[in-house]
Protein backbone atom coordinates (compact mmCIF):
# COMPACT_ATOMS: atom_id res chain seq x y z
CA UNK A 1 0.00 0.00 0.00
CA UNK A 2 1.55 3.32 -0.97
CA UNK A 3 1.58 6.38 1.24
CA UNK A 4 -1.85 7.61 0.24
CA UNK A 5 -1.34 10.90 1.96
CA UNK A 6 1.85 11.56 0.08
CA UNK A 7 0.24 10.75 -3.24
CA UNK A 8 -2.67 13.04 -2.40
CA UNK A 9 -0.08 15.73 -1.88
CA UNK A 10 1.51 14.84 -5.21
CA UNK A 11 4.73 13.74 -3.62
CA UNK A 12 4.62 9.99 -4.01
CA UNK A 13 7.90 8.34 -3.13
CA UNK A 14 9.88 6.93 -6.01
CA UNK A 15 10.40 3.18 -6.45
CA UNK A 16 6.78 2.32 -5.86
CA UNK A 17 4.44 1.19 -8.61
CA UNK A 18 2.45 4.29 -7.73
CA UNK A 19 4.94 6.97 -8.62
CA UNK A 20 3.63 9.98 -10.52
CA UNK A 21 3.73 9.47 -14.23
CA UNK A 22 3.55 5.69 -14.06
CA UNK A 23 2.16 4.85 -17.49
CA UNK A 24 -1.40 3.67 -17.96
CA UNK A 25 -1.77 -0.06 -17.86
CA UNK A 26 0.84 -0.49 -15.15
CA UNK A 27 -1.81 -0.95 -12.57
CA UNK A 28 -2.43 2.42 -11.00
CA UNK A 29 -4.31 5.59 -11.79
CA UNK A 30 -3.43 8.20 -9.14
CA UNK A 31 -5.79 10.84 -7.85
CA UNK A 32 -3.86 13.93 -8.79
CA UNK A 33 -0.17 14.22 -9.61
CA UNK A 34 1.86 17.16 -10.91
CA UNK A 35 2.49 17.78 -14.57
CA UNK A 36 6.02 18.86 -15.46
CA UNK A 37 6.39 19.43 -19.17
CA UNK A 38 7.78 22.91 -19.75
CA UNK A 39 10.79 25.02 -18.77
CA UNK A 40 11.01 23.71 -15.19
CA UNK A 41 14.36 21.97 -15.68
CA UNK A 42 15.92 24.92 -17.51
CA UNK A 43 14.83 27.55 -15.00
CA UNK A 44 15.81 25.47 -11.97
CA UNK A 45 19.16 24.61 -13.54
CA UNK A 46 19.81 28.31 -13.97
CA UNK A 47 19.27 28.81 -10.22
CA UNK A 48 21.69 26.00 -9.43
CA UNK A 49 24.27 27.18 -11.97
CA UNK A 50 24.22 30.75 -10.69
CA UNK A 51 23.98 29.95 -6.99
CA UNK A 52 20.69 31.85 -6.55
CA UNK A 53 19.01 29.05 -4.66
CA UNK A 54 17.57 30.74 -1.62
CA UNK A 55 14.78 33.22 -1.00
CA UNK A 56 16.30 36.09 -2.96
CA UNK A 57 16.60 35.95 -6.73
CA UNK A 58 15.07 37.01 -9.99
CA UNK A 59 12.57 34.15 -10.13
CA UNK A 60 10.96 35.11 -6.81
CA UNK A 61 10.35 38.61 -8.15
CA UNK A 62 9.33 37.33 -11.57
CA UNK A 63 6.90 34.80 -10.13
CA UNK A 64 5.30 37.47 -7.94
CA UNK A 65 4.99 39.87 -10.86
CA UNK A 66 3.55 37.24 -13.17
CA UNK A 67 0.94 36.13 -10.63
CA UNK A 68 0.00 39.77 -9.94
CA UNK A 69 -0.35 40.39 -13.67
CA UNK A 70 -2.32 37.22 -14.23
CA UNK A 71 -4.78 38.17 -11.50
CA UNK A 72 -4.81 41.87 -12.34
CA UNK A 73 -3.74 42.56 -8.76
CA UNK A 74 -1.48 45.30 -7.49
CA UNK A 75 0.84 43.05 -5.51
CA UNK A 76 1.68 39.40 -4.93
CA UNK A 77 4.01 38.13 -2.20
CA UNK A 78 5.51 34.64 -2.45
CA UNK A 79 5.38 32.31 0.57
CA UNK A 80 6.64 28.85 1.47
CA UNK A 81 3.07 27.57 1.55
CA UNK A 82 -0.53 28.60 1.26
CA UNK A 83 -0.92 27.97 4.98
CA UNK A 84 1.90 30.41 5.77
CA UNK A 85 0.31 33.00 3.46
CA UNK A 86 -3.06 32.51 5.21
CA UNK A 87 -1.38 32.96 8.58
CA UNK A 88 0.10 36.29 7.54
CA UNK A 89 -3.09 37.38 5.69
CA UNK A 90 -4.98 36.94 8.97
CA UNK A 91 -2.30 38.91 10.82
CA UNK A 92 -2.72 41.71 8.28
CA UNK A 93 -6.46 41.57 9.04
CA UNK A 94 -5.47 42.17 12.67
CA UNK A 95 -6.98 38.90 13.85
CA UNK A 96 -5.76 38.25 17.37
CA UNK A 97 -6.25 35.97 20.37
CA UNK A 98 -9.89 35.10 21.04
CA UNK A 99 -11.15 36.76 17.88
CA UNK A 100 -13.34 34.76 15.52
CA UNK A 101 -13.06 34.14 11.78
CA UNK A 102 -15.94 32.71 9.73
CA UNK A 103 -15.01 29.92 7.33
CA UNK A 104 -16.69 26.87 5.81
CA UNK A 105 -16.78 23.61 7.70
CA UNK A 106 -16.21 21.67 4.49
CA UNK A 107 -12.64 22.44 3.52
CA UNK A 108 -9.11 21.17 3.99
CA UNK A 109 -8.22 22.21 7.53
CA UNK A 110 -5.33 24.59 6.73
CA UNK A 111 -7.31 27.87 6.89
CA UNK A 112 -8.71 26.89 10.30
CA UNK A 113 -5.22 26.07 11.51
CA UNK A 114 -4.03 29.50 10.37
CA UNK A 115 -6.81 30.99 12.51
CA UNK A 116 -5.69 28.90 15.49
CA UNK A 117 -2.00 29.92 15.02
CA UNK A 118 -3.15 33.38 16.12
CA UNK A 119 -5.07 32.12 19.13
CA UNK A 120 -8.29 33.00 17.30
CA UNK A 121 -11.28 30.68 16.74
CA UNK A 122 -13.08 29.46 13.65
CA UNK A 123 -16.81 30.02 13.29
CA UNK A 124 -17.76 27.11 11.06
CA UNK A 125 -20.46 27.73 8.49
CA UNK A 126 -22.19 25.19 6.29
CA UNK A 127 -21.90 25.05 2.51
CA UNK A 128 -24.78 25.31 0.06
CA UNK A 129 -25.94 21.96 -1.33
CA UNK A 130 -25.68 22.89 -5.01
CA UNK A 131 -22.30 24.56 -5.35
CA UNK A 132 -20.69 23.43 -2.08
CA UNK A 133 -19.47 26.93 -1.22
CA UNK A 134 -19.81 28.76 2.12
CA UNK A 135 -23.50 29.47 2.67
CA UNK A 136 -24.03 33.22 2.28
CA UNK A 137 -27.48 33.22 3.88
CA UNK A 138 -26.32 31.31 6.94
CA UNK A 139 -23.41 33.70 7.43
CA UNK A 140 -25.74 36.67 6.96
CA UNK A 141 -28.12 35.19 9.55
CA UNK A 142 -25.26 34.67 11.98
CA UNK A 143 -24.00 38.24 11.64
CA UNK A 144 -27.43 39.87 11.80
CA UNK A 145 -29.13 37.68 14.40
CA UNK A 146 -26.36 35.78 16.17
CA UNK A 147 -24.12 38.80 16.79
CA UNK A 148 -24.49 42.15 18.47
CA UNK A 149 -22.69 45.40 17.70
CA UNK A 150 -20.72 46.90 20.52
CA UNK A 151 -18.47 49.92 20.22
CA UNK A 152 -17.92 49.38 16.49
CA UNK A 153 -17.21 45.69 17.01
CA UNK A 154 -19.23 42.62 16.09
CA UNK A 155 -19.63 40.22 19.00
CA UNK A 156 -20.80 36.62 18.69
CA UNK A 157 -23.56 36.51 21.31
CA UNK A 158 -23.03 32.79 21.94
CA UNK A 159 -19.31 32.96 22.66
CA UNK A 160 -18.80 36.61 23.56
CA UNK A 161 -15.89 36.70 21.11
CA UNK A 162 -15.24 39.41 18.54
CA UNK A 163 -15.84 38.46 14.88
CA UNK A 164 -13.00 39.94 12.87
CA UNK A 165 -12.89 38.38 9.40
CA UNK A 166 -14.60 36.23 6.79
CA UNK A 167 -12.55 33.53 5.11
CA UNK A 168 -14.49 32.01 2.21
CA UNK A 169 -12.76 29.09 0.48
CA UNK A 170 -13.14 28.61 -3.28
CA UNK A 171 -13.77 24.93 -2.82
CA UNK A 172 -12.60 22.38 -5.38
CA UNK A 173 -11.56 25.11 -7.81
CA UNK A 174 -15.04 26.66 -7.85
CA UNK A 175 -15.27 30.26 -6.60
CA UNK A 176 -17.43 31.08 -3.60
CA UNK A 177 -20.11 33.73 -4.09
CA UNK A 178 -17.77 36.53 -3.13
CA UNK A 179 -19.79 39.70 -3.80
CA UNK A 180 -22.30 39.11 -0.97
CA UNK A 181 -19.43 38.30 1.40
CA UNK A 182 -17.73 41.58 0.48
CA UNK A 183 -21.04 43.42 1.03
CA UNK A 184 -21.50 41.79 4.43
CA UNK A 185 -17.92 42.65 5.32
CA UNK A 186 -18.55 46.29 4.39
CA UNK A 187 -21.73 46.36 6.46
CA UNK A 188 -20.13 44.78 9.54
CA UNK A 189 -16.61 46.23 9.29
CA UNK A 190 -14.94 42.87 8.66
CA UNK A 191 -11.97 41.89 6.49
CA UNK A 192 -12.32 39.23 3.80
CA UNK A 193 -9.45 36.83 3.16
CA UNK A 194 -10.24 34.75 0.07
CA UNK A 195 -8.77 31.27 0.29
CA UNK A 196 -8.18 30.66 -3.41
CA UNK A 197 -5.62 27.94 -2.81
CA UNK A 198 -7.64 25.47 -4.88
CA UNK A 199 -8.85 27.83 -7.55
CA UNK A 200 -6.02 29.49 -9.46
CA UNK A 201 -7.35 29.90 -13.00
CA UNK A 202 -11.01 30.11 -11.93
CA UNK A 203 -13.22 33.11 -12.67
CA UNK A 204 -15.98 34.76 -10.64
CA UNK A 205 -18.28 36.86 -12.84
CA UNK A 206 -15.32 37.15 -15.18
CA UNK A 207 -12.89 38.23 -12.44
CA UNK A 208 -9.98 36.00 -11.41
CA UNK A 209 -10.30 34.00 -8.20
CA UNK A 210 -7.65 35.08 -5.71
CA UNK A 211 -8.32 38.79 -5.95
CA UNK A 212 -11.92 38.92 -4.86
CA UNK A 213 -11.38 39.63 -1.16
CA UNK A 214 -9.32 42.30 0.62
CA UNK A 215 -6.50 39.78 0.36
CA UNK A 216 -6.33 36.47 -1.47
CA UNK A 217 -4.18 33.41 -0.95
CA UNK A 218 -2.95 30.83 -3.48
CA UNK A 219 -1.19 27.50 -2.99
CA UNK A 220 1.37 25.73 -5.15
CA UNK A 221 1.33 22.51 -3.19
CA UNK A 222 2.08 19.35 -5.16
CA UNK A 223 -1.56 18.54 -5.81
CA UNK A 224 -2.62 22.01 -6.93
CA UNK A 225 -3.37 23.15 -10.48
CA UNK A 226 0.22 24.34 -10.76
CA UNK A 227 2.94 23.51 -8.27
CA UNK A 228 6.28 24.70 -6.97
CA UNK A 229 6.68 21.54 -4.91
CA UNK A 230 5.31 23.59 -2.04
CA UNK A 231 4.52 27.27 -1.99
CA UNK A 232 1.92 29.96 -1.63
CA UNK A 233 1.14 33.55 -2.57
CA UNK A 234 -0.58 36.42 -0.86
CA UNK A 235 -2.37 38.74 -3.26
CA UNK A 236 -3.50 42.28 -2.51
CA UNK A 237 -4.02 45.63 -4.17
CA UNK A 238 -2.67 47.41 -1.11
CA UNK A 239 1.10 48.14 -1.33
CA UNK A 240 1.35 48.77 2.41
CA UNK A 241 -0.11 45.32 3.15
CA UNK A 242 2.22 43.72 0.61
CA UNK A 243 5.25 45.41 2.20
CA UNK A 244 4.14 44.26 5.63
CA UNK A 245 3.67 40.71 4.31
CA UNK A 246 7.21 40.71 2.84
CA UNK A 247 8.59 42.06 6.09
CA UNK A 248 6.82 39.51 8.29
CA UNK A 249 7.70 36.61 5.97
CA UNK A 250 11.42 37.43 6.03
CA UNK A 251 11.96 37.40 9.79
CA UNK A 252 10.84 41.02 10.30
CA UNK A 253 14.30 42.48 9.71
CA UNK A 254 14.35 46.15 10.60
CA UNK A 255 18.08 46.52 10.20
CA UNK A 256 19.41 43.54 8.25
CA UNK A 257 23.02 44.60 8.84
CA UNK A 258 22.77 44.91 12.60
CA UNK A 259 20.09 42.22 12.96
CA UNK A 260 17.56 44.49 14.59
CA UNK A 261 14.02 43.10 14.81
CA UNK A 262 11.20 45.13 16.32
CA UNK A 263 8.61 42.40 16.12
CA UNK A 264 8.31 38.64 15.70
CA UNK A 265 8.72 37.52 12.08
CA UNK A 266 8.62 34.26 10.17
CA UNK A 267 10.84 32.34 7.79
CA UNK A 268 8.06 32.08 5.24
CA UNK A 269 9.69 33.20 2.00
CA UNK A 270 9.57 31.03 -1.12
CA UNK A 271 12.96 30.01 -2.49
CA UNK A 272 14.25 31.07 -5.89
CA UNK A 273 14.37 27.40 -6.98
CA UNK A 274 10.71 26.93 -6.15
CA UNK A 275 9.79 30.23 -7.78
CA UNK A 276 11.68 29.14 -10.92
CA UNK A 277 9.47 26.08 -11.06
CA UNK A 278 6.45 28.30 -10.49
CA UNK A 279 7.34 30.54 -13.44
CA UNK A 280 7.59 27.50 -15.69
CA UNK A 281 4.34 26.01 -14.40
CA UNK A 282 2.53 29.31 -14.82
CA UNK A 283 3.33 29.23 -18.53
CA UNK A 284 1.12 26.13 -18.74
CA UNK A 285 -1.70 27.29 -16.47
CA UNK A 286 -4.23 27.86 -19.26
CA UNK A 287 -3.54 24.41 -20.72
CA UNK A 288 -3.78 22.76 -17.31
CA UNK A 289 -7.08 24.42 -16.45
CA UNK A 290 -8.43 23.45 -19.88
CA UNK A 291 -7.37 19.84 -19.21
CA UNK A 292 -8.99 19.86 -15.75
CA UNK A 293 -12.23 21.22 -17.21
CA UNK A 294 -12.21 18.62 -19.99
CA UNK A 295 -11.66 15.83 -17.47
CA UNK A 296 -14.55 16.99 -15.31
CA UNK A 297 -16.86 17.37 -18.27
CA UNK A 298 -15.99 13.84 -19.42
CA UNK A 299 -16.93 12.46 -15.98
CA UNK A 300 -20.20 14.38 -16.04
CA UNK A 301 -21.09 12.99 -19.45
CA UNK A 302 -19.73 9.49 -18.88
CA UNK A 303 -21.46 9.00 -15.52
CA UNK A 304 -24.65 10.94 -16.24
CA UNK A 305 -26.78 7.83 -16.66
CA UNK A 306 -25.53 5.97 -13.58
CA UNK A 307 -28.26 5.94 -10.90
CA UNK A 308 -27.31 7.35 -7.53
CA UNK A 309 -24.42 9.54 -8.63
CA UNK A 310 -24.45 13.31 -8.27
CA UNK A 311 -22.14 16.22 -9.08
CA UNK A 312 -21.30 19.63 -7.76
CA UNK A 313 -23.26 22.11 -9.87
CA UNK A 314 -21.42 24.99 -11.46
CA UNK A 315 -22.93 28.28 -10.30
CA UNK A 316 -23.95 30.94 -12.83
CA UNK A 317 -21.22 33.20 -11.40
CA UNK A 318 -18.47 30.64 -11.78
CA UNK A 319 -15.90 29.60 -14.32
CA UNK A 320 -14.47 26.79 -12.23
CA UNK A 321 -10.84 25.73 -12.53
CA UNK A 322 -12.14 22.18 -11.84
CA UNK A 323 -9.19 21.45 -9.55
CA UNK A 324 -10.85 18.28 -8.26
CA UNK A 325 -13.57 16.19 -9.88
CA UNK A 326 -15.80 14.99 -7.04
CA UNK A 327 -18.94 12.86 -7.29
CA UNK A 328 -21.63 12.15 -4.72
CA UNK A 329 -22.63 8.55 -4.11
CA UNK A 330 -26.16 8.04 -2.80
CA UNK A 331 -25.90 4.54 -1.32
CA UNK A 332 -29.63 3.78 -1.61
CA UNK A 333 -29.76 4.55 -5.32
CA UNK A 334 -26.24 3.48 -6.31
CA UNK A 335 -26.19 0.23 -4.35
CA UNK A 336 -23.06 0.83 -2.28
CA UNK A 337 -21.69 3.77 -0.36
CA UNK A 338 -18.78 6.04 -1.22
CA UNK A 339 -16.27 4.25 1.04
CA UNK A 340 -17.06 0.81 -0.30
CA UNK A 341 -16.76 2.20 -3.84
CA UNK A 342 -13.41 3.74 -2.83
CA UNK A 343 -12.17 0.31 -1.71
CA UNK A 344 -13.51 -1.41 -4.81
CA UNK A 345 -11.78 1.12 -7.08
CA UNK A 346 -8.59 0.82 -5.07
CA UNK A 347 -8.70 -2.91 -5.75
CA UNK A 348 -8.64 -2.04 -9.44
CA UNK A 349 -5.71 0.35 -9.10
CA UNK A 350 -7.80 3.51 -9.15
CA UNK A 351 -7.12 6.04 -6.43
CA UNK A 352 -10.03 8.12 -5.17
CA UNK A 353 -10.38 10.13 -2.02
CA UNK A 354 -13.20 11.29 0.26
CA UNK A 355 -13.81 14.95 0.96
CA UNK A 356 -12.46 16.35 4.21
CA UNK A 357 -13.91 15.58 7.60
CA UNK A 358 -16.10 18.63 8.29
CA UNK A 359 -14.17 20.93 10.55
CA UNK A 360 -16.92 21.20 13.19
CA UNK A 361 -16.29 17.47 13.78
CA UNK A 362 -12.51 17.81 13.96
CA UNK A 363 -10.96 17.08 17.37
CA UNK A 364 -8.15 19.49 16.47
CA UNK A 365 -10.64 22.34 16.39
CA UNK A 366 -12.62 21.56 19.53
CA UNK A 367 -13.84 24.83 21.03
CA UNK A 368 -14.73 26.33 17.65
CA UNK A 369 -18.24 27.66 17.11
CA UNK A 370 -20.45 25.84 14.60
CA UNK A 371 -23.44 27.35 12.83
CA UNK A 372 -24.82 23.86 12.12
CA UNK A 373 -23.47 22.08 9.07
CA UNK A 374 -25.72 19.22 7.89
CA UNK A 375 -24.87 19.74 4.21
CA UNK A 376 -21.13 19.47 4.91
CA UNK A 377 -21.81 16.24 6.80
CA UNK A 378 -23.78 14.73 3.92
CA UNK A 379 -21.23 15.76 1.30
CA UNK A 380 -18.49 14.28 3.46
CA UNK A 381 -20.36 10.97 3.72
CA UNK A 382 -21.18 10.79 0.03
CA UNK A 383 -18.30 12.56 -1.69
CA UNK A 384 -15.47 10.96 -3.60
CA UNK A 385 -12.82 12.78 -5.62
CA UNK A 386 -11.94 11.00 -8.88
CA UNK A 387 -8.58 10.88 -10.65
CA UNK A 388 -8.02 14.26 -12.27
CA UNK A 389 -4.33 14.70 -13.00
CA UNK A 390 -3.70 17.07 -15.88
CA UNK A 391 -1.97 14.18 -17.62
CA UNK A 392 -4.86 11.70 -17.14
CA UNK A 393 -5.18 9.87 -20.45
CA UNK A 394 -8.57 9.37 -22.13
CA UNK A 395 -8.11 5.59 -21.87
CA UNK A 396 -7.40 5.79 -18.14
CA UNK A 397 -10.41 8.01 -17.65
CA UNK A 398 -12.53 5.52 -19.60
CA UNK A 399 -11.33 2.83 -17.20
CA UNK A 400 -12.37 4.92 -14.21
CA UNK A 401 -15.79 5.66 -15.68
CA UNK A 402 -16.29 2.01 -16.60
CA UNK A 403 -15.34 0.83 -13.11
CA UNK A 404 -17.71 3.28 -11.43
CA UNK A 405 -20.56 2.39 -13.77
CA UNK A 406 -19.94 -1.32 -13.12
CA UNK A 407 -19.97 -0.69 -9.37
CA UNK A 408 -23.61 0.41 -9.50
CA UNK A 409 -25.77 -2.03 -7.57
CA UNK A 410 -22.64 -3.16 -5.70
CA UNK A 411 -21.55 -4.64 -9.08
CA UNK A 412 -19.35 -7.71 -9.03
CA UNK A 413 -16.66 -6.15 -11.23
CA UNK A 414 -16.05 -3.39 -8.74
CA UNK A 415 -16.40 -5.49 -5.63
C1 LIG B 1 -8.56 25.12 1.08
C2 LIG B 1 -7.09 25.05 1.34
N1 LIG B 1 -6.53 26.03 2.08
C3 LIG B 1 -5.21 26.03 2.35
C4 LIG B 1 -4.40 25.05 1.86
C5 LIG B 1 -2.97 25.08 2.28
O1 LIG B 1 -2.09 25.26 1.24
P1 LIG B 1 -0.61 24.70 1.43
O2 LIG B 1 -0.66 23.22 1.32
O3 LIG B 1 0.14 25.33 0.31
O4 LIG B 1 -0.12 25.13 2.76
C6 LIG B 1 -4.93 24.03 1.05
C7 LIG B 1 -4.16 22.94 0.46
O5 LIG B 1 -3.20 22.42 0.72
C8 LIG B 1 -6.32 24.03 0.80
O6 LIG B 1 -6.88 23.06 0.08
Which characteristics define this entry?
binds pyridoxal-5'-phosphate, globular, Aspartate Aminotransferase, domain 2, Aspartate Aminotransferase, domain 1, 415 residues, three-stranded antiparallel beta sheet, ten-stranded mixed beta sheet, 16 strands, disordered N terminus, 2 domains, alpha/beta, 14 helices
Structure explained in plain terms:
- The protein has helices at residues 4-8, 40-50, 58-71, 82-92, 110-117, 136-146, 178-188, 239-249, 272-282, 285-302, 331-334, 338-347, 374-382, 394-407, and strands at 75-79, 99-104, 121-125, 147-150, 153-156, 162-166, 191-195, 203-204, 207-208, 215-219, 232-236, 309-311, 318-319, 325-329, 369-370, 383-386.
- The longest helix has 18 residues, at 285-302.
- α3 (58-71) runs parallel beside α9 (272-282), α4 crosses α5 and α4 (82-92) packs across α8.
- It starts with a helix and ends in an 8-residue tail after the last helix.
- It has two domains: 26-33 and 285-407, Aspartate Aminotransferase, domain 1, CATH 3.90.1150.10; 40-282, 3-Layer(aba) Sandwich (Aspartate Aminotransferase, domain 2).
- 36% of the residues lie in helices and 15% in strands.
- It is globular, with a radius of gyration of 21 Å.
- With 415 residues, the chain is an alpha/beta fold.
- It has 14 helices and 16 strands.
- Pyridoxal-5'-phosphate binds at residues 81-83, 107-108, 110-111, 169, 195, 197-198, 219, 221, 232.
Amino acid sequence: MPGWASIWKGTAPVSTPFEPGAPAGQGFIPLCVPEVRGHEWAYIKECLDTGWVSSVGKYVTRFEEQIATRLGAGQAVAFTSGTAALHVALMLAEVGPDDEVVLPSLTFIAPAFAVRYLGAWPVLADVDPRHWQMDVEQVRGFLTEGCRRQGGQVINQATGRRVKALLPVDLMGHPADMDPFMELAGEFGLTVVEDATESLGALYKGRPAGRLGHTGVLSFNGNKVITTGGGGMLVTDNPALANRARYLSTQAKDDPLEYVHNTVGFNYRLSNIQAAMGCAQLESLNDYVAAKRRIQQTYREGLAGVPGLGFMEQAPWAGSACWMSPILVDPAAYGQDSRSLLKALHGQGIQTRPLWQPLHQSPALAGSFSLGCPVSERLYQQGLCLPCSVGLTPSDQELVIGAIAAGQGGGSQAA
